[in-house]
Design a protein that fits this description.
Layout (H helix, E strand, L loop, with lengths): L2 H17 L11 H16 L7 E2 L15 E3 L2 E2 L6 E7 L3 E12 L7 E2 L5 E2 L6 H12 L6 E3 L2 E2 L3 E4 L3 E4 L8 H7 L5 E14 L3 E8 L10 E8 L1
Parallel strand pairs: 2-5, 4-14
Antiparallel strand pairs: 1-3, 5-12, 6-7, 8-9, 8-13, 10-12, 11-12, 13-14
Helix pairs in contact: 1-2
Length: 230
Amino acid sequence: MAFMSFRLIATLVIGLALALPGAAGAASGPKRVQTLAAAQTVYLFANLTGEQSASPRVCGAGQPSSGFLGFFLLPTLSFSPGDQSFDCRITTRTVVLDLSGSTVSEDASDVPYEFADGTELLFRRPNLERICDDVGPRFFPTPSPATLDGNPIAGTAVTTPVFPVPVHRTAPLTFWDDSVALGHPGLLFSTFCGWKAELRLTRGQHVILVDHSALFGGVSTHFRYNITVR
C-alpha cells in the first residue's frame, strides 16, 4: 500500500474509530495511546504479506521519516517467533513501540472466544471490546522486557475502542474472506489490547531492544531497532 493511501486511510479510520462510542467493554489507557495503538494496528495490517514475525518487515515501509502525524510507527510483533533487526532513519523525535499485545478482530467463523468462567462469545463487532478486556490482563499481564540505550522501558497498558482496519485481497490467513462474508469487503473491525510505549529521542544514534521470547514459550524472539534521528 503506497504511503499516501495509507496516510489517508489511517487518518480517516482512526478519526472515525475514536469518535464512535464503545461497545460492551471499556477502552482504557490514555486516549492518545489508544489512537497510536489503533494507527499501528492499521499499519501492521497494511504491510502483512504472510505469517511473518514483524509487520512491516522493513523499518519505515510505506511511511515517511517524519512518521504518522509526527509519530514514527516502528515494526510490530506479528504472528511468528524469530529474532529481528531493523535499521530506522527518521526525522521526527517520537517513536511508537509495541511491547506485546493482541489485535482482536472480527471473523466469520463460529469458533467462539471462551472466558475463564465458561462464557463464550463469537468474534463479532459488538463483542470485540469485551473480549479484548479479558485478553489483555489474561494473556499479556506485563509488557515484554525492553530497553532504550540500556535503560528500561516501562510501557503503557491500553485497550482501544473498536476501529475499522482496511485489509487487502492478498492478506494472509482469512482476513479478506472474512471481510467479504461479514458484508464489508476490504474492512474488518478490530480492537487492540496490550502494551505500547511512546519514546522521545534526541538526535543521533539509539538502540531499542525488546525481548518477546516469553510469548512463544522461550523461543528466541528478540527485536533490535537501530535508530538514527537526523
